[in-house]
Amino acid sequence: MMIYAKSYPMQRFLVGLIMLSGMVSSAFAQKAGQAVPLLSAGTMPLYPRMALASHVQGVVKIRVTTDGKKVSSLETESGPAMLVAAAKENILTWRFYAHKPMTFVTMFEYVIEEPAKCDFGNSVAVLKLPLDVRVSTNGLKTCDPAAQIKGHT
């Protein structure tokens, strides 16, 4: 019992220290979230047709550097080449409200949804700019137009 009584203040200290470190790290996370620049303009990202036809999907990570108004440089961190090209093309259209020049990593997720359809459809984009972009579209299947015409007669 005596050992427990002596170790209890140390346990309280450690629990307090852990809680304090959690609050400090969450404060840094909030500050980092506020430091990301706001977009003022840019084009809507689309699923690249060649990537869709080739059934290429995946996550692209790109390090973006801004000059305080627009993108000044891009550096690929990861992702399929077809999708990297489309993501970079989209990012280069971004314009920002005035801010201090900075660098951040943005992630584009390209997803092919089911069911597949016989024709190209519109992509669906979920934007959490400038850090996260999700672009999805239905898969593309090969269809025989003659079979569809026969079914209608």
What does this entry show, briefly?
38% of the residues lie in helices and 33% in strands.
Word description of this protein:
The chain has helices at 2-35, 49-53, 81-91, 145-152; strands spanning 39-41, 58-66, 71-78, 95-96, 103-117, 124-128, 132-140. The protein is α+β, with helices and mostly antiparallel strands and 153 residues long. The chain has a five-stranded mixed beta sheet with strand order 3-2-5-7-6, with helices on one face. Strands 1-4 form a two-stranded antiparallel sheet. It is built from four helices and seven strands; from the N terminus they run αβαββαββββα. The chain folds into two domains: 1-35; 37-145, TolA/TonB C-terminal domain (2-Layer Sandwich). The protein is elongated, with a radius of gyration of 24 Å.
Label the structural class: alpha+beta
Helix content: 25-40%
Count the E strands: 7
Mean pLDDT: 80
Shape: elongated
Low-confidence stretches: 1-32
Number of self-contained structural domains: 2
The fraction of residues assigned to DSSP E strands is 25-35%
The strand order across the widest sheet is 3-2-5-7-6
CATH topology type of the largest domain: TolA/TonB C-terminal domain
| CA-based gyration radius | 24 Å
CATH architecture grouping of the largest domain: 2-Layer Sandwich
Assign the CATH superfamily of the largest domain. TonB
CATH class descriptor name of the largest domain: Alpha Beta
Terminus-to-terminus distance = 90 Å
The succession of helices and strands, N to C, reads HEHEEHEEEEH
